[in-house]
Amino acid sequence: MYEFLKYTVKDAMTPSPLTTTPDTLLRELEKIFETHDFNGIPVLNHEGRLVGMVTKYDLLKAFIFTPDSPIPRYGLIMDRPASSVMSLDPVTVNPDMPLSRLLQELVELQTKSFPVVENGRLVGIISREDVLKALRRTTAA
Fold first, then answer.
1. pTM of the complete model
2. Phi/psi at 89 (nearest 5 deg)?
């Protein structure tokens, strides 16, 4: 367990994650979520900068019944772009952050994953599952 205290985000993150753009249609995002079982996908602009995150939760929010849309139309909603539901300015972490600190952030913010950014560029993503794997590795030794 003490080995875990030496780990940083870069020791457990998924490097070069799958990303999307603000223009990606929700129907395409749904396929990505279904195929890869991701919690969230970083959204990059055309310059390659992180501009948001889109999660399964964001996708579900698109279908909330409202006074303006008492019966959401599946096809129309799925033709909307990711930018219509994505979270802007997501909380990011640095690859050199201690994994013990990241664990605390995951619990405090009740989030499932964080984009990992270094020098303004997305270099990875780290999820709850990644932290659990690191914990398992350090206790198996």
1. 0.88
2. 45, 60
Tell me if the domain spanning 2-140 has CATH number 3.40.50.300: no
Q: What pLDDT does 130 receive?
A: 95
The torsion of the CA quartet 91, 127, 106, 43, rounded to 10 degrees, works out to: 20
pLDDT tens-digit readout, 92-116 = 999 999 999 999 999 999 999 999 9
Instruction: Give dist(CA 17, CA 116) in Å, integer.
Output: 10
Angle subtended by helix axes 128-140 and 99-109, to nearest 10: 140
H helical segments located in 19-114: 26-36, 56-61, 74-78, 99-109
Distance CA 116, CA 110 (A): 17
Domain boundaries, the chain: 2-140
Cβ density class 36-60: b for 16+ within 10 Å, e for less = eebbbbbbbeeeeebbbbbbbebbe
Adjacent-strand bridge partners of 116: 93, 124
